Amino acid sequence: MKQSNQECAQEGNNTNTKISFYANDTYVGPNPSSVLIAGVDSAFFEFGSTFAFDIPLFLEFEPNTTTNAIGKAKGIYTVYTRDDLSCSITMNLFLDEYQDSVLTFLGVLNITSPLREVPVVGGSGVFRGATGYFLSQVVFNDPITSNNIVKYDIDVNLYQNLLLH
């Protein structure tokens, strides 16, 4: 990957790739990247709250910017427990360098956990048959707006016999 922070290691028929970036997740403002699509506005992160997101991704920690994006994370998450802030998340990662390729994540994300892990469930294009996970952590949070910047570290295994050439 030319644009993002990446390390590659090749072993047998697979390649392990590590990708790091920052996501500017905004809930308020003129162009929010995450919006509540089901639930009660006054109970923002309560049981049943469902959000759709289309979040720009950056190589560097860049609060308050919309330029120099390297791609987007798009998907939905739903708060599905009453006893903590755990969400079911489906996230598709679109990186500009890998046009027509998508990396897909599906799992449980606890909003209150300082470090979150969600597995790769596959992908398309160069990510076909991918496995792995992401680790994410909030590196900036505005307690008034809930806008935040999240750092993602992705570890993904790509299988050469499935790669498109």
From TrEMBL:
Main location: secreted
Signal sequence range: none
Pfam family, one: Dirigent
Subcellular location: Secreted, Extracellular space, Apoplast
Keyword Secreted: yes
Gene Ontology BP term (one): phenylpropanoid biosynthetic process
Keyword Secreted carried by entry: yes
Top-rank lineage group of the source organism: Eukaryota
Keyword annotations of the record: Apoplast, Secreted
GO cellular component, one term: apoplast
Listed InterPro entries: Allene_oxi_cyc_Dirigent (IPR044859), Dirigent (IPR004265)
Assembly: Homodimer.
Similarity field: Belongs to the plant dirigent protein family.
Protein name: Dirigent protein
